[in-house]
Amino acid sequence: MEHKNFTVVNEFVLRALAWNWELQLFMSALLLILYVIILPGNILIIVTIRTDVHLESPMFFFLANLAIMDICYSAVTPPNMMANLFNEQKTISYQGCMAQMFFIHFLGGAEFFLLIAMAIDRYVAICHPLHYATMVTRAVCWVLVLCAWCGGFIHSMIQIALILQLPFCGPNELDNFFCDVTQIIRLACINTYSLEYAMFINSGLVTTACFILLLISYGALLIKVKMGSSQGKSKAASTCVTHIIIVFIMFCPAIYIYCHPFWDFPFDKLVGFFHTVVFPLMNPMIYTLRNKEVKVAMFRMLRKYKLRRNK
Question: How much is the pTM?
Answer without folding.
Answer: 0.86
